[in-house]
Amino acid sequence: MHLIDTHAHLYSEQFDADLSEVIERAAQNGVQRILLPNVDSNSTERLWNVVNAYPERCFPMMGIHPCSVNESIAAELRHVETELAKGKYIAVGEIGIDLFWDKTYIKEQIAAFEQQMEWAKELNLPIALHCRDSFDEIFASVEKVQDGGLRGVLHCFTGNEAQAKRTIDLGLHIGLGGVLTFKNSGVADAVKNVPMEKILLETDSPYLAPTPFRGKRNESAYTKLVAEKLAEVKEISIEEIASITTANAERLFNL
Ligand code: NI
Fold it and tell me: I need a surface site. Which of 37, 40, 70, 155 has the fewest CB within 10 A?
C-alpha cells in the first residue's frame, strides 16, 4: 500500500529528537512520501534541512502562512518570491486566510494570499490552502484569481457539504486529515458525496492527530488512520483509498 502525506510540518521542533524514527514509522505504515508546507522565512532553513536529509521522501513547498502575516509582510513576500524563483518547490503553500486567532491583518492576509496564488499560476504550481474561520473570504479570493489556471488543495478541510462542493467547483481538491476521525466533526458527512478523484490525505503533523491519538503529537504514519476512516465513509477498501488518493496527489503535485 502506498500513501502520501500531503501536508506535514516535519521540520517542527517537536520532531527534533526522533525524526528518523518518525520517517521510518511512516514508511512502515505505507507512507513513503511526505509533502512539507512552509510557514514563513523562519522555517525555510529547517524545512530544507529535512528535505536534504530525506530527498527521496520529503518534498518542499514555499509560501507564507496567514498566521505569519504582519507588518513585515513585504519582506516575507520577497522571500517567497526569491525562493520560488529557484524552481525547487513542488507547490506554493501554505497560504490562505485565518480569522480564528487574529483579524488585525485581514487586509494584508487577503493581499498576500492573492499575490501568492498569482505566482502559483505563473509558475504552474499547485497551491496548498489554509482556511480557518474564513471560507467566505477564501472563496471570494479564489474566485477572483481562478481563470482555469489555478489548481491546488484546501488542506485540513473542516467545512460542510456545501463548502466541499464549492471547493471542488472552484477547481480545488479537498485535503482530509485527523479531523475526519473526530466524533461530531461533521467532516465525514460533508465529504460523503465528494468524488474520490478530488480527495487527498494528510496529517498536518504535528497538529490534529487522528483518533485514538487525538491531543497527542501527530505524525505521518497516522495518514493510514485517516485512510481507514475514509474507507469506512466511502464504503470501499483501504487499498482503493490508497491507490486513488496517491494517484490524485501525484497528478496534482507532479510527483
Ligand atoms: Ni499546516
Answer: 70
